[in-house]
Design goal:
Blueprint lengths: L1 H20 L6 E4 L2 E8 L2 H6 L11 E11 L3 E2 L7 E6 L5 E7 L9 E2 L5 E8 L2 H5 L7 E3 L1
Length: 143
């Protein structure tokens, strides 16, 4: 019995150590105190795949696309099965555009082009901005 509790205490201590040392970190994006857990797409291959072929996206989760520099980055929904919202964020961490995007399984899919340059793009479930009162100009915290 004692051995069982000793192992449990040891496991808890190791988990606490990882958290305290910052070795376990969950990527999050917060807009006006509304936070979402994100997968980060940094490489060209990760950005090209995006959320393709996913059948669902949990509430308060999304994908953050990180680009090497600010530019006009258009998106399309080729092979994307769920309705999304695309939030473009500039290098000063301000929301510069928000658009709703619909799934597309056709060969010709609509392109979603922002009105301003961005360095980051956040994809979340459709209606996220409306439900959380997020608008162009809001400050963003990426951590």
């Amino acid at each position: 019995m004692e051995n069982k509790y000793t192992k449990l205490i040891l496991v808890c201590a190791v988990i606490a150590m990882f958290i305290l040392l910052g070795l376990y970190q969950e990527d999050r994006v917060c807009i006006d105190e509304k936070c979402v857990k994100v997968e980060v797409a940094k490489t060209p291959a990760e950005r090209a795949r995006g959320l393709m072929f996913r059948e669902s996206l949990p509430e308060n989760e999304g994908m953050l696309f990180v680009f090497p520099e600010e530019n006009i980055y258009s998106f399309w929904m080729k092979n994307t099965l769920i309705p999304l919202e695309i939030i473009w964020i500039d290098e000063n961490f301000k929301v510069v555009d928000i658009q709703k995007a619909v799934p597309c399984l056709e060969d010709e899919c609509q392109s979603y082009i922002p009105t301003e340059e961005s360095r980051y793009v956040l994809e979340v479930n459709s209606n996220f901005s409306e439900d959380n009162k997020i608008k162009v100009g809001d400050e963003v915290n990426i951590n």
